[in-house]
Structures are given as C-alpha cells and as structure tokens.
C-alpha cells in the first residue's frame, strides 16, 4: 500500500483510518519564511495556523503506543510544542544531528538540525536505544530547499517502526522519508502539497534502490 499523494495533508489525512500507521517521521515547514540561494521557498512556511490541525490528525492516525519524530524550527518551538501537546503527544526525547559545516552564521554558527521524539501512549523501551546526537550528511539540496539525508532518516525508521510497518510523512517534500522507509523494508505513505516536489518524490521512488541518490 506504499504511495505518495499530492495534496494538502489537512484534507488527505482525514481520509485515513484511525490507528492505521506505525510511525510518523516528518519535516514540516519551520515557520521562518525560508528561501534558499536560488529563491526556492516552501508552502506554509509563514503562518502556523496548520500546525494544530495537522498534528491532531497525525495523533489520530498513529496507532497506540507508537512514535512520531518531528523536525521543527527552533525559532517557533513554542508553537510546535503547543501543537504537539494539544494533539495528545508525549515529548520523550530530543535528537540533534551534528553538521560538519554551518548552514548560516549570525550570533552563532548554525551547525545542527534537531527533532523531537514524541509518543502516542506508552511504547515499550527499546533494547538498544538510538543515540540522541547523530552525524549529518550534506545533501546539496538538489531536490528540495530543506532536503534531509536518507542516511540520517533510515536509522530513525529502523529504530521506531516495526518490520513491514507503515511510515507516514504528511510533509513529504522530495520524498526522503519515503525513500528511507522503502530502503528499510517498510511501507510508506507520503503527502506533499507542492506538485513539483511531489513529482520529484515519485521519480525518486521509481528508481531502483542501488541507483537512488541519497538525499
């Protein structure tokens, strides 16, 4: 049942049954009105009115005693925290991905990405917990302005979803979560609003695994 859908996740997720996915791994807009050096931008990256409804739907479709990993924008962490808690998620961990380079320099050099580990219910403790500080591989952002590396996403998929489980990404972008899920032997459901990024994701997932460019 693996597929990636072009559409608004606020319209698509309500069509999914309750308790129907095993893990959510997502990289939503950070609410920073981001534009890369070529002028590419991301839909929904200005106002956070979608945050609460989106995470409420994610909580509904996630099965009981399961995990969600969400990247977030540190400038808007209060809005993300409020949305997660209002939806019913428990915050149980924080992940830091250390970069060997800085994305930008202001008061500090920005050399990490971060995500929160959330749960619905109370899943069992893992026998071998994943480290909360992990390395980051630069993708070059070839497919998407905030492209995440498959090499960094795959350990999350393997640690927090069961074999042959269904991994959902409601903000799929160029499909990196779906590629990581497929490469880890999981099924996937992706939703992407922007037609051009959806087309890129479909094309990436059509490639044989050994020819796929990690991103």
Proportion of helical residues: 25-40%
CATH topology annotation: Rossmann fold
Q: How many extended strands?
A: 8
Which CATH class applies here?
A: Alpha Beta
Shape from CA axes? globular
Task: Provide the fold topology.
Layout lengths: L2 E4 L2 H4 L8 E6 L24 H11 E10 L5 H11 L2 E9 L13 E9 L12 E3 L14 H11 L5 E4 L6 H8 L3 E6 L2 H12 L9
Parallel strand pairs: 1-8, 2-3, 2-7, 4-6, 7-8
Antiparallel strand pairs: 3-5, 4-5
Q: Explain this structure to me?
A:
The chain is α/β, with parallel strands linked by helices and 215 residues long. The protein has a single domain (3-211), classed as Vaccinia Virus protein VP39 (Rossmann fold). 27% of the residues lie in helices and 24% in strands. The chain has six helices and eight strands; from the N terminus they run βαβαβαβββαβαβα. An eight-stranded mixed beta sheet has the order 1-8-7-2-3-5-4-6. β7 (166-169), α5 and β8 (187-192) form a beta-alpha-beta unit. The radius of gyration is 16 Å and the shape is globular. Residues 210-215 have low confidence and may be disordered.
Please name the defining characteristics of this protein:
215 residues; alpha/beta; Rossmann fold; 8-stranded mixed β-sheet; 6 helices; 27% helix; globular; disordered C terminus
Summed up, what is this model?
This protein has 215 residues and is of the alpha/beta class. The chain has helices at residues 9-12, 51-61, 77-87, 150-160, 176-183, 195-206; strands at 3-6, 21-26, 62-71, 90-98, 112-120, 133-135, 166-169, 187-192. It contains 6 helices and 8 strands, in the order E-H-E-H-E-H-E-E-E-H-E-H-E-H.
